[in-house]
Amino acid sequence: MAKKDKSYRRAMEELQLELASLNRWLRHGGQRLVVVFEGRDAAGKGGTIKAITESMDTRGYRIASLPKPSETETTQWYFQRYVEHLPSAGELVLFDRSWYNRAVVEPAMGFCTKAQYKAFMAAVPAFEKLLTDDGIILLKYWLAVDQEQQEERFSERAKDPLKRWKLSRNDLASREKYEEIGHLRDVMIERTHRPNAPWFVVDYNDQKRGRVNLIRHLLEQIPRHDVNIPEPKLPKLKGKPKTEHVTSKALWVPDTAG
């Protein structure tokens, strides 16, 4: 194994312990945490979210990755379908793209009107202030990737049968919008960065390095969150260990793994 990979795995093992502790801290104290992940297609949002939740109690977090709005949802208040995914006490919610679709993706791809974009940009700071005033901790990350690196990842996805599903028509169309998306990103950050709802930009040209930097930074933004679970003492079993027994042999799945 390469030295770089060993260093990454070692760092991630240490971070997993801290993330598990954060998970327990949220549940123990009833805090609510929202982390927004934005960035270009193939930047690494999904992989980072998987890394964050790898060792967490599945009951303590949720991932919100919303599909294209339905006909009914397009008639609702824009933030409405996102509000229902906000955390309850003790929960972490990770948004794989969020309401900020309207700040970058939608205007770049022509999915919203200029009036809708303008209204959103005026409303979002007030919306986020309502969230944080109610006690929700809100962190927002933009995963930055150069166009050359993005093109390499698109090519890799196209060649890999297990990754082709990640390439959508919008992904392919966005390739011609690199500069426009960058401009919209800059406007978004300038107009929606607030002390209560800050933006942070992470270099994701190297995804593994980006994950480590982002997770370390995320943990640093949260108040001290050490909640240890004492090692339990397992009582000695009475008698000999039992064998799993199912009456009908026909129900067993054949062992083909060997």
CATH topology: Rossmann fold
Hey, roughly how much beta strand do the residues contain?
Answer: 5-15%
User: Could you list the spans in which at least 5 consecutive residues all have pLDDT below 50?
Assistant: none
Total strand count, please? 5
Mean pLDDT: 93
Can you write the helix and strand succession as a string?
HEHEHEHHEHHHEH
**Tally of separate domains:** 1
| Number of contiguous helices | 9
Organism: Dyella jiangningensis
InterPro entries: P-loop_NTPase, Polyphosphate_phosphotransfera, PPK2-related, PPK2_PA0141
GO biological process, one term: phosphorus metabolic process
Domain Polyphosphate kinase-2-related: 4-227
Could you please describe the fold and organization of this structure?
By secondary structure, this protein is an alpha/beta fold. The chain has one domain: P-loop containing nucleotide triphosphate hydrolases (Rossmann fold), CATH 3.40.50.300. Strands 2-3-1-4-5 form a 5-stranded parallel sheet, sandwiched between helices.
SSE blueprint and pairings:
Elements: H1 3-29, E1 33-39, H2 45-53, E2 61-64, H3 80-83, E3 92-96, H4 105-109, H5 114-133, E4 137-144, H6 147-159, H7 169-174, H8 178-192, E5 199-203, H9 207-221
Parallel strand pairs: 1-3, 1-4, 2-3, 4-5
Helix pairs in contact: 1-9
Q: What key attributes describe this structure?
A:
258 residues, alpha/beta, five-stranded parallel beta sheet, 9 helices, 5 strands, 11% strand, globular, polyphosphate kinase activity, Polyphosphate_phosphotransfera, kinase, ADP/GDP-polyphosphate phosphotransferase, P-loop_NTPase
